[in-house]
Amino acid sequence: MQFIDLRSDTMTQPTMEMRTAMATAPVGDDVYGEDPTVNRLEAEMAARLGKEAGLFVASGTMGNLGSILAHAGRGDEMILGDLAHTFLYEAGGAAALGGIHPHPIHNAPDGSLPLDEIKAAIREDDVHFPPTRLICLENTHNRCGGYPLSPEYCDAVGELAHSRGIAVHLDGARLFNAAVALGVDPHDLTRSVDSVMVCLSKGLGAPVGSVVCGTREFIAQARRMRKIVGGGMRQAGIIAAAGLYALEHHIDRLADDHENAARLAAGISAIEGLELGPDRAPGQEVKTNLVYFRITRPDIDAATLTTRLHARGVLGHPIGPGANQMRLATHLNVTTADIDAAITALRSAVSET
Ligand code: TLP
Fold first, then answer.
1. Tens of pLDDT along 172-208?
2. What mean pLDDT do residues 277-291 have?
3. Among 68, 103, 253, 299, whose CB has the most other CB atoms within 10 angstroms?
4. Closest Cα to atom 5, ligand 1: which residue?
5. Structurally, what CATH architecture does the domain formed by 13-248 represent?
6. With a threshold of 0.85, does the pTM exceed it?
7. What pLDDT sits at residue 281?
8. Ligand 1 atom 18: the closest Cα is on which residue?
9. What distance in angstroms lies between residue 85's CA and the mean position of ligand 1's atoms?
10. Is 10 in the pocket of ligand 1 (CB under 6 A)?
11. What kind of fold does domain 253-351 have according to CATH?
């Protein structure tokens, strides 16, 4: 059976053109700084995000970890959202490897961290407290429904953090989705942060890789951290070429994924027994490529619906809190016809007796 895979935008297959770019890329040893394709990708991403330098890493998790380790040390504290990917899904790496104390505060439904709550969380200089070194944002915010944070909000966090001598790191796994959805230059979303991690292997459709950007000094430190976690790669231009191809060809098309997600959301909201979430004004639930919804029928949970969808050729992703929430993601390999087929499958799966 040919599945419609809506589990994640990480499921994309590299296109033939991307594979050709990979196969023909000039390469060298990147640990020696000699891979021309990696160097080009790092410079290109840094230029797009208005930063001095970039660092190619194996994954979003490695990019966030390397950045946090470069900003903070043992006994330091970082403020982040209680629904942040870094807090929930990165195996506690910053605490495990860096001894960095996470200080989670509540994410608002739009993925922001309320400014007054950030202010209240920043530690005073007192021997009892770990010093606050870092604030982490996420844009788009995965668990908050793929919502994009605005440039004005990011600026406000940057201003607050910098006035207290604190750095800001942005998990921009889906930063380009945010920029396309808001109709802004990606640089507008990164101008006030000290470091940013962007994934190539999600909506951009590359098979592997993320890029961290920041000042030259910061990137030198992050490069050392990448080495510590075993992330120094050799002829990595083979995979960096996919990222370069994606930057050139797969950004504008993210708007198609967002349209497909809106279409899917409209279909879901018309199905009895399902409701879109997180809670927002009708029509405001879905802004990018992630569609979260809850099952309101007490007799079906997300695991059951996932199995029923699978039997109908559609793959989805149960996701907490609770046992009745699911996420579907649109991407490069999902067509509008697939969305219509997925809505039909959902309707029949919910009403199966
Ligand atoms: N998210 C994946 C899974 O880990 C849940 C997904 O399918 O959404 N930041 C954010 C906001 C992410 O969503 C992810 C991946 C990462 C970081 C980590 O990236 P990778 O998987 O490349 O380590």
1. 999 999 999 999 999 999 999 999 999 999 999 999 9
2. 81
3. 68
4. 89
5. 3-Layer(aba) Sandwich (3.40)
6. yes
7. 67
8. 60
9. 7
10. yes
11. Aspartate Aminotransferase, domain 1 (3.90.1150)
